[in-house]
Every structure is written in C-alpha cells, then in structure tokens.
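Fold this sequence, please.
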Amino acid sequence: MIPACTRGALAALFVLSGGLALAEEKPSPQPKAGDAMPPVELTIDLEGGKPRCSPAELRLPAETNVALRVVNRADRPVTLTAPGQFENRNVLHADGDLVHVMSNEGYLVKQGGTGTLKLRTLAAGQYPYACTGVQDRVAPFKGTLILAPSAG
C-alpha cells in the first residue's frame, strides 16, 4: 500500500503533468505570408548544344522564403548563377544534385540532376541570372530574375 503523503504527491504530479500536456497541445500560429515557400521550377535544357534555362524571366516574390526546384535535363553539368541571391546568407537549404560553387554566386547542377534550393529572396527589382555549361563558359544563357513585392 502507498502511504497517503506519497499518494498526494503522485496525484499532484499527475495533475501538473496533465496541465503541461494541455499547454503543449495549443495550435501553433499560422505562418506569416512572407514565410511561405511557394514552389517554383526552373528547368535546364540544351539548345544548339548550349544550356538554356526556362523560364527566361524567373519571377519570384521579393524578400520572401521560396523553394526553387531545379531540373537539369542536359547531358552535362550546368552552373546556375545569380549574383547576390546564392550567397550563404540567402540560402536556407539546398538538397539533391546541387553543389555550391566557390564563387558564392551559384550552384552546379549535376548532369540529369534535380534539386531544391530554399532561398530568402533579395529586395524587389530585376537581377541577372545565368546557366553556364562547365565545358563552355564563353556564351552563357542569360535570364532575368524578377523579384516583385509581395501582395500581402
């Protein structure tokens, strides 16, 4: 038999632990509009033997967390660059067949590879981006990264 003082302590502990469990079950707040990660896809193909990115005008919300899915359909590795955007401070996470390049401005996408870059986009404006074949860096494909202010 359990002594009365021990039973009282156990009952108090049970009540307290139940209260803590209820406190933990509160619903978490909805993420702010600027914290959403809308998925966007960028594809790389070959055109005339050179890499071409699509879309040429890559539109993303400014100063927002986004997930950029990169698909390389080319038969060679391609470097995707966007000065300023791919700096370590703006890249939240990268996975798949992507390797950060030493210039801190881009990612190498493996031949036939796919991956996802989770980014914090720069301020609103237009920025250059490019796709460059690692064997032919003379004439990269040049596109425009358009960062628009968010509607919220």
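The helical segments are 4-24. The mean pLDDT is 80.
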